[in-house]
Amino acid sequence: MAKVKVTQVRSTIGKPEDQKATITALGLGKINRTVEVENTPQIAGMIRKVSHLVKVEEA
């Protein structure tokens, strides 16, 4: 599978609990933290849900 780099660029303050939980599940939680994850359909859905909080790049 292809990998993608996901970087948190916006804060979760004031956001719904489900979006905060999604950020945590992706392994993020602080601004400018980056993780490299497999691009599975499940991960793609999580990224889509918080797309306004993260930046995505091909790894």
UniProtKB/TrEMBL annotation:
Residues 4-54 form the Large ribosomal subunit protein uL30-like ferredoxin-like fold domain. The keyword Ribosomal protein applies. Keywords: Ribonucleoprotein, Ribosomal protein. It holds the Pfam family Ribosomal_L30. InterPro entries: Ribo_uL30_ferredoxin-like_sf (IPR036919), Ribosomal_uL30_bac-type (IPR005996), Ribosomal_uL30_ferredoxin-like (IPR016082). GO terms for cellular component: cytosolic large ribosomal subunit. One of its GO terms (molecular function) is structural constituent of ribosome. GO terms for biological process: translation. Part of the 50S ribosomal subunit. Belongs to the universal ribosomal protein uL30 family. HAMAP family: Ribosomal_uL30_B (MF_01371_B). This is Large ribosomal subunit protein uL30. The gene is rpmD.
